[in-house]
Amino acid sequence: MTRKNILITGASSGLGKGMAIEFAKQGCNLALCARRVEKLELLKKELQELNPNIHVFLRALDVTKQEDVFKVFKAFEVDFKNSRETLDRVIINAGMGKGASLGKGYAKQNMQTAMTNFCGAISQMEAAMEIFREQNHGHLVLISSMSAFRGYPRAMTVYAATKAGVKSLAEGLRVDVLHKPIKVSTIFPGYIESEMTDSVGKPPPFMIALDKGSKLLVKSINKEKAKTFVPYWPWYFIKLIMPFMPLKMLRKF
């Protein structure tokens, strides 16, 4: 099934922006939301210059506010209905990586990451699935992380835990909609350049450029597989050995 109408959260920068550009090139209509509306406005102009034939809808959204998530998703559904279309795909991408080692005075930042990445994901899944169940079709995509497969130290501790939670949520939902015309995909990106990776300091291993990563993400999403590692090399093979990595080695990732 061709997915023409796509909602992306956290679309103002990084992977969300990169995916929006790639989908626009493919002629997809886009519903984009993020906290920073001014960046969305600039992105909309860029997308319509790339492809003047697509519709681009924008709304401000803080995914930690559950009531707002439902309002925004429903409003986007109406936007597409007014264009005689349906919402075909929702990409849950909004996230953050604030924080530090537990017990070092960064409890507020760690909780912000947990609320955005995990609780926010639940709200987005609830809102998307209400729409998909009612129309009896749709593709839900959750952007997790390679960090979902092990615990990580320092600033990654809470972030990795939230991405493991997203991984579990997606799998549980996938079981729930088995044999129904609703698909659920989990994407596990490795290190792709973004505002989040820019704040790390020393570049992590196997980093790829944002434009290349965005192309690979969109290619993987369009295949609608249950689980995908992006890029496949080397992350699929790293995933195979991650359960056996000693803690000293995990510090390097």
Automatic annotation (TrEMBL):
Pfam families: adh_short. GO terms for molecular function: oxidoreductase activity. InterPro entries: NAD(P)-bd_dom_sf (IPR036291), SDR_fam (IPR002347). Keywords: Oxidoreductase. The lineage of its organism: Bacteria, Pseudomonadati, Bacteroidota, Flavobacteriia, Flavobacteriales. This is Short-chain dehydrogenase. Belongs to the short-chain dehydrogenases/reductases (SDR) family. NCBIfam families: PRK08251.1. GO terms for cellular component: membrane.
